[in-house]
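Note to self: the last two entries modelled the partners one at a time, which told us nothing about the interface. This time every component goes in together.
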Amino acid sequence: MSLLRLITCGSVDDGKSTLIGRLLYDTKSIHQDQWEAVHRTSLKRGDARVDLALLTDGLRAEREQGITIDVAYRYFSTPRRKFILADTPGHVQYTRNMATGASTADLAIILIDARQGVLEQTRRHAFLATLLGVSHIVVAINKLDLVGWDKAREVFDRIKSEFEGFAAGLPPTDTVFIPISALNGDNIVNRSEHTPWYERADGGRGGGPTLLEHLEAVPPRPIKQFPHARFPVQWVVRPQSDDAANHDYRGYGGQIVAGELRTGDEVIALPAGQRSRVKRIHLLDEDLPECHPPQSVTVLLEHDLDISRGDTLIKAPGNGHADAMPRISREIEATVVWMSESPLTPGRRCIIKHGARYVRAIAGPIRERLEIHSLAWQAGASQLGLNEIGRVGFKLASTIVFDAYTQCRATGAVIVIDEATNNTVAAGMIL
Amino acid sequence: MPTITYSYTRAVNATSPVAETPLAHLRVLEAESIHIMREVAAEFERPALLFSGGKDSIVMVHLALKAFRPAKFPFPLLHIDTGHNFPEAIEFRDELAKKMGERLIVRYVEDSIKSGRATEDPGPSPSRNRAQIPTLLDAIAEFRFDALFGGARRDEEKARAKERIFSFRDDFGQWDPRNQRPELWNLYNGRIRRSGDAGGDGGGEHIRAFPLSNWTELDVWQYIALEKIEIPSIYFSHQRDIVIRNGQICPVSHFFPVRSGETLVRRTVRFRTVGDMTCTAGVESPASTVQDIIDEIAASRTSERGARLDDTVSDAAMEDRKKEGYF
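The predicted structure of the combined assembly is written out below.
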């Protein structure tokens, strides 16, 4: 059983909560007592039918106001796959919440109300999903029952070509279109009788996949994986000196985020550049010959080097493989999603967390700001406000070891923290 | 150093690229949890791991072994003992801590009640769920803990589904669901104001960290099977004297006596959680092995917290407790 992380994008009006409720309900991920609680609430409100959206609207304030406040995580599984779904609200704080949910997602479901077609928010969702590096997109064209199944094919084809038209300007992403009715369950788990014209995108036999079939089939990782070894050191494992058996043990705990490491590999510890060889890859009582993402292991080296939290182990180039060097610098350029009421202005001091390292930073000028309606980059902005996106340079108090976010998410992502409040105020994707 | 007597096996070839193997999802969750535990250990001065002897905290301890061995844990274990726990779980708690050679701190709700810091809920068989809060906050102040690991999972309850992996708590231990820090990628923001910091007010801001956030009940059981982790006997089917109260199977004990009009019966039961005996209902079950339990849960239609009488008080019961400082 593998694991797929996904995000649903859309507003309550697109039927997003209903879709999620449907996925949970049809995969039998709703327990009887949860179902009864929702049933009771629906009755109390006088709803005509059990509102599947109630399954996901968690907090009291949300139920009272009928809105979704923040990112919530849902879990469902089939015999083939476990799913972690980030459910983000569709209106206020939208950019901030969607960026949060998309940051860990392998796949984004973009919901379109068939009666409305491609809206500004649809374009925004697709833009944000690709900006955050989501590998797969599903465009779920919903409420086809409401336009009438006799017109559904025509509507579906029109929306599909409209979406493809504007998506041509975005980074290429694996995109699939599925005609659905979340309310009635058409093409969610079970194939709809109403869409005989819906075929597989690759021309294969047997009709197009239902949403769940597609979610089960899609590879959880990007098709083009970053091949170069990156092992950020989180924690130095050193038993106390009175432990005779492990007196010389010095291990580096971390998660391998890209590439692979094997025992015997020649490695370089960055940023200092010391060289050594992998002696052991250790995990409790196991010694592993190699490790792959996303394993958390403890790496022991041949030489006793001064390596600490925040350093990165990479494979030394040469020896028949050509591992690319990451960049090492005290300056970065990043696409920033600003998440605070207090705007980002040039010269603002902050703290950046990158991998296992906090560094003090000063923001440079805002080179470009995204015009959220037209999705065009515009020069000349003096600040970035809440939920705005811009390209900004930062000067750092010490060097970091990084890759471009589009190459490697784990080594290209930063969060920006406010010095005074300690709040997370931005997400950054290094350019 | 005492050695662990668990036997660890590798049902999945952990060295293969993490892919479509039957239990690959557990290896992904394991890796994520170890990463979280190391982040907390590295970023905080005085963390502690909340350890009750329940299955989730046992799994956390197992993950900590993977994160930190052969060194000792860089934190103690802490249990807030309500005095109403299953004796089997308490015994297990003490034995495991001893076997691992790790430090266990226990603080008692009973002491908080005696000193007037906590009050018992009214009623004949009161739950001490809410009464744990002052004891916990006092322990945080006593040891100046700046981070606490909890075994809570987001699949348990609707309020938990919205809680961050690094969940910020203010000086009063309160959770503010409407004002949580955005949490992106696996870049957890562990910055807090410490007593003595410039601008600090000497209070106790801290982080509650939940390494099992993305695990479900089934994942936990599959992992227990995969890693052959020992758990207390009350999770398995056994004969026990119970009464049926409000349609739930209630274990009888000296703090949960039989009421007039109720009949004591002996049933074959097991427990899905090991909270307070006063608020943990059993299920009739013949499941006597971990695999039996996995099969039972996979087929089950009642969620784990449905057996917690404290959460059925209202639909927002958990949210209200968490805001006050509960886990």
